[in-house]
Design goal:
Layout lengths: L2 E6 L2 E6 L4 E3 L4 E4 L6 H7 L9 H16 L3 E4 L7 H4 L6 H8 L3 E5 L13 E3 L2 E3 L2 E3 L10 E3 L4 E5 L2 E8 L3 E3 L10 E2 L3 H4 L7 E4 L5 E4 L9 E4 L1
Length: about 230
């Protein structure tokens, strides 16, 4: 599985092409914004009807990342479910989630869509601090050594939009992992004001690739690995 190597607060990490972040020394895999049950929530609220396959597709991709790296710890940095009702929904796809949780430490970080503890298994935290790193849902502009989600960053290259990680010397923002999630352009003020000069975007998909953010200088401290 190809990846881009990063260093944050002295910790070596890998931004995986799948959209997951890998901390090899702790055998920790972090993902964000699964938004499981999004199609069901849309239906309950009378919104646009979406094909009801998002949970299964998202969990298939997550299972593939877990099978490839065999983590001892999985951290989901918020908005894992599209709302609290989705966490308890009678969705056959969630049976697969129970199997993924079994046999490893699984930590749910509270998000703005799923602020309450889930009942499907695992531990629930407002945020998680491990060594010099803090995992949370929404970025704190003053933080250092932070891994967050929430923004669903995307960058457009040669006319194509790609989900991406964002990384600078103080933080990493994870891409949305969920199948039916939208995205926020990296030129948006919410992102541009958060990232330091020299920040990079790391494209996900078939290949992980580090590129400078629009208006930023060339990538630093991010190297491709396999």
């Amino acid at each position: 599985m190809n990846a881009v190597s990063l260093t944050l607060s002295g910790i070596r990490l890998e931004a995986q092409a799948s959209g997951a972040l890998w901390w090899a020394d702790r055998r920790l895999l972090a993902v964000s914004d699964l938004h499981l049950g999004r199609s069901g929530r849309q239906a309950r609220l009378g919104g646009a009807l979406l094909p009801p396959y998002d949970s299964a597709e998202t969990l298939d991709r997550l299972a593939a990342a877990i099978d490839a790296l065999r983590p001892a710890v999985v951290v989901c940095t918020g908005d894992s479910f599209d709302d609290d009702a989705a966490a308890g929904a009678d969705d056959p796809a969630l049976d697969g989630l129970v199997r993924l949780i079994a046999g490893r430490q699984w930590i749910w970080i509270a998000g703005n869509h799923d602020p309450a503890p889930v009942t499907i298994g695992g531990e629930w935290r407002r945020e998680l601090r491990l060594g010099p790193l803090t995992f949370r849902h929404r970025a704190d502009p003053a933080a250092k050594g932070e891994v967050s989600g929430h923004l669903h960053p995307k960058v457009t290259i040669a006319g194509r939009s790609h989900r991406c990680f964002l990384a600078d010397g103080r933080r990493i923002v994870l891409p949305a992992f969920g199948a039916y999630t939208g995205g926020l352009a990296c030129r948006d003020g919410a992102i541009a004001s958060l990232m330091d000069p020299g920040a990079v975007a790391i494209l996900t998909g078939r290949r992980a690739l580090a590129v400078p953010l629009p208006g930023q200088s060339s990538p630093r401290a991010a190297t491709a690995s396999t």
